[in-house]
Amino acid sequence: MSDERKYRWVGTRPIRHDGVDKVTGRANFGADFSLPGMLHGKVLRSPHAHARIVSIDVAPALALEGVKVAITGADMPDIASEMGTAGEGQVDYAEVSRNVMAREKALYDGHPVAAVAATTSEIAEEALSRIVVEYEVLPHVLTVDEAMAPGAPILHDHLRTAGLDPVPDEPTNVAQRIEIGRGDLAAGFAEADEIVEHEFTTQMVHQGYIEPHAVVARSGEDDQSVVWCCTQGPFTVRAMCAKLLGLDVSKIKVIPSEIGGGFGGKTTVYVEPLAVLLSRKAGRPVKIVMSRQEVFRGSGPASGTRIRVKLGAKADGRLTAAEAWLAYEAGAFKGSPVVAGAMCMFAPYAVENVKIEGYDVVVNKPKVNAYRAPGAPPAAFAAESALDELARKLGMDPVELRLVNAVKEGSQAIYGPKFRAIGMVETLQAAREHPHLKAKLGPNQGRGIATGFWFNAGMQSSASVSLNEDGTATVVSGCPDIGGSRTSLALMAAEELGIDVQKVRPVVADTETIGYNDATGGSRVTFATGMAVIESARDVVRQLRERAASIWGVELEQVEWNDGQALPINGADEGELEPLSIGTLARRAARTGGPISASTSLTARGAGPSFATHICDVEVDPETGVVQVVRYTAIQDAGKAVHPGYVEGQYQGGAAQGIGWALNEEYVYDEKGVLQNPGFLDYRMPVASDLPMIDTVIVEVPNPTHPYGVRGVGETPIIPPLAAVANAVRDATGVRFGDLPMSPPTVLARLDAR
Amino acid sequence: MESMHYESPATVAEAVRLLSDAPPGSARVLAGGTDLLVQMRIGRIDPALIVDVKRIPETRGVAVRDGALVIGASLETMTLRRAPDLEKNFPGLAEAAALIGSDQIQGRASLGGNLCNASPAADTVPALIVLGAQAEIAGPEGTRRVPVAEFVTGPGSTVLGRGEFLVSLHVPLPAPRSADAYLRLIPRTEMDIAVVGSAVSVTLDAGGTCTAARVVLGAVAPTAIEVPEAAAALIGSTLDDAALGRAGQAATAACNPINDMRGTVEYRRKVAAVLTRRAAAKAAERAAGRN
Predict the structure, then answer these.
(1) CA dihedral sign of residues A97, A99, A105, A111
(2) How many whole angstroms separate alpha carbon A211 and alpha carbon A291?
(3) Please, is A25 exposed, middle or buried when counting C-beta atoms within 10 Å of its C-beta (0-12, 13-18, 19+)?
(4) Do B267 and A125 count as a contact with CB atoms less than 8 A apart?
(5) Residues in chain A closer than 8 A to B189 (CB atoms)
(6) How far apart, in whole angstroms, are the C-alpha atoms of residue A449 and residue A444?
(7) Between chain A and chain B, how many beta carbons pairs sit less than 8 Å apart?
(8) Residues contacting residue A279 through CB under 8 Å, at least 6 positions apart
(9) Residue A2 has pLDDT above 60, yes or no
(10) What is the pLDDT of residue A92?
């Protein structure tokens, strides 16, 4: 650690290397790529929430001129159950296979049942309409309540509830029960002076990335397939395409495009394996671009939930007991982020008596996928709303209540480990001192605060740094840049090499050009891949010092690297040696030992968690129920902000998405289980005019395991807003909203019922 | 997957000929295309002929003629909003026009298109009706004028017959001490479709008493609906709270809304009253400030 370290580049705000191409429309995104002879693929999707597929006849589609191939579930290899990594979580490849293409049953509106490739997208579209699918429609379940009810329609006959001892031998929609906790809950509640108990629901929401999934796959006679696509995890796409199609990983090469948003949603595959299979069958490249409607119906949103919370506290605010019950929709296949939700919800607080029970529940909706701090926002919404009520009952300031209970260095986290240096207390103190908390409120306005915690991930990264012959440098990683990580990596290389960040070219490579990288996710790239870049850059600096030492005929210890040049020290400085700049050493590299480069592969450990406190002011129109966020401040620990502008951008973006989750976003299904709002008109994310300028405060409590103290920052900011908004609405109206979203009709109905 | 034909005639007569010659139901008129292209993309319509009317001078431009503001049916709202005195003479119409879509959409979308699309939630339709606007229609039999209030006959349907298209809108210039206002409720602040819309126009006498008024609601019935009972509640009053309240109640009573994911029947009824009250107050304030 280097608390005192003075940085030359880290902490500055250069224009991002990829920025000009992006704002001028020149950058190439997923759908921008094309190849000669390319076919256009389209996917036929189930119009039913739950249906047995009696038969599929693709012959009429194949009879259409221009249609080259068609595939159904029968063309997908049957693969054994095997767990693999996707984003921050684990998936079963066998279920990924069944999600990308239905087999015996269609399990949700939008579940793929067949795909075609044709010479034009119009012909492919027409071909879809000629495929004859006979369905036997089955009763469906859409919510955890329906799915957990006795006698509920069952999605998977083989599914049994894991986590129960013994595992009951009965078909169920509950894939798993988990429990975490410690202490003596009953004693904790008995000790309490005040107890609050509340119930909450949240709806399925989508990440809302602007760029739909897009892929081009080309397969050759040599059995190799090349995949161009927009993804957070090119190595994940490689692994999944290989596993799903029964191929060696080396048979697939993935070239990631620029990415128009992901937020966790692009850490798995949807149309990619289908494009590969179609291209292998057709012997021609195949492009598939999902429509917005397909993205909503057929990609992986975030779980709808039902959560109950009970808290007990002494009159001075100290929590004596915390209990929660959570049920998360997994979508059509097991694997909701209920475990993460359970681990996060009370993580900011040092409470000794805890019991959290969680259920992972399959329903006839799309299989959920990661969405920014997967699982945490609904759980924190429940916990932080309950805390707000507790503060009211205790007559305590909500910031003070949280400060009394805040975890600090040495606190035992509810989910296991002891915290090292963390910034929970510091964000609360920053909130307390912020002018926002003291500003006067107008009529019909209210203020809420809430906190958030996210683990952050380390995982596997590879990166290389190469010195070019003119003294500039190239930084290569395998992590697609979704949040400015390219420039953050360049800043770290510039810091170590001592050269201008604009002399560093950061590159996102394909899966054959760099060692393995886990996906861009878990707020891990600037932390983990950053460590690989720093290590590589330090290796390059060592090599530069060696070259200088050999030129000067001195020992390595007599060469210091400072501000981009080798300086003689330790006695070597007594002679006539002139400093050797990086440019000089680069030009002379051929004669001093050859090219200078280094690469590092690592598993990064010690990703320090990031805590946040958000302050929200709302104004509620008592006659229409419209909630307007009028002021918002996001305060969060970044450890060390490598590029403060991108850190602030993460805080603002997360806050915006969380506000949308709180106010208007939801998947709306009809009684048949068909999604009613698969588009941005009726799936209402906030637009720019809906939000005030979101104020940010970067707190820096260095992460002791990172050379610069960096913590991931991307996910935590979406966790506090749901409760911050709800607590503000409570303050403005006196009404506690436990059910999200707080859309105008819902709010007005509750206000009129006051 | 039939092939589609595109024409961009330069005269009213040529457009009428093209539309008349096309088999019934097979031709569509294109202005800005902000509704048409979306409907084509989602497969709701599959026209064999597109007649782009933007080259026809009569559908372009905005000017005062014979005591009325004449607005070309294909004129994009961004240009319309910059017309001299639009905001001064018709503040409610100006605010309705400003609500359609984003800046990019405003560069294409037209009032004519908003009317011909015949959505119950169209923002500019209630605003046009309270101003007594007329629609000028060209067709095989020549041109005719129809009050905008009678133009839309149901969701997606209009009085336009075979071979006919909308050429322009004629909005009478306001009487002294008159003004209009339009308010809509959407869950967001932009980029949305009205859950309820309410347009009000009022005329005051020198003492501040309301001598004429019109109230039209959008998104609460199959078409925009005029609420004479609400207007009657305003006329003869000084637009005090009691009168505004009665106008609001009349608006609620006139609603015939549906339940959908944008709003419940109950919600729409309540909000119709709120918006009508607020729009009337806003129009009254504007009118009082005028001589």
Answers:
(1) negative
(2) 10
(3) exposed
(4) no
(5) 628, 687, 689-690
(6) 17
(7) 57
(8) A39, A117, A217, A218, A219, A225, A285, A286
(9) no
(10) 94
Cross-strand pairs, B52 = B30
Cα–Cα distance list, A315 to A13, A193, A398, A432, B209 (Å): 46, 6, 14, 21, 61
Average pLDDT over residues A609-616: 98
Same domain for A330 and A417: yes
| Rounded Cα distance, A512 and A476, in Å | 12
Do β-strands A214-219 and A225-229 pair in parallel, antiparallel, or remain unpaired?
antiparallel
A450 has which bridge partners? A614
Residue A678 has pLDDT above 80, yes or no: yes
**Which of B184, B262, B264 best tests the A interface by mutation, with the highest count of A CBs <10 A?**
B262
The alpha-carbon gap from B44 to the nearest alpha carbon of chain A, in Å, equals: 14
B13 contact partners, CB below 8 Å, separation of at least 6: none
A567-591 pLDDT, tens per residue?
A: 999 998 888 899 999 999 999 999 9
Domains and CATH numbers, chain B: 5-52 (3.30.43), 57-172 (3.30.465.10), 178-288 (3.30.390.50)
Statement to judge: residues A328 and A414 lie in one domain: yes
> Do residue B190 and residue A687 have CB atoms under 8 angstroms apart?
yes
**Is residue A165 one of the residues assigned to a domain?**
no
Domain of A724, CATH number, reads: 3.30.365.10
pLDDT > 90 fraction of chain A, expressed in percent and rounded: 96
| Domain shared by A531 and A620, yes or no | no
- Count structural domains, chain A: 3
Q: Do B189 and A745 touch (CB under 8 A)?
A: no
Beta bridge partners, A618, equal: A446, A629
Q: What is the CATH number of the domain that holds A236?
A: 3.90.1170.50
Chain B residues close to A122, C-beta within 8 Å: 1
Do you find a cis peptide bond into A166, omega within 30 degrees of 0? yes
- Would you say residue A1 has pLDDT above 50? no
Q: Mark whether A538 and A441 lie in a shared domain.
A: no
| Tokens representing residue A659 in the block | 């506000």
Residues A594 and A619 in one domain: no
Give the Å distances, CA to CA, from A128 to A118, A120, B60. 10, 13, 41
- A518 lies in which domain range? 19-26+458-604
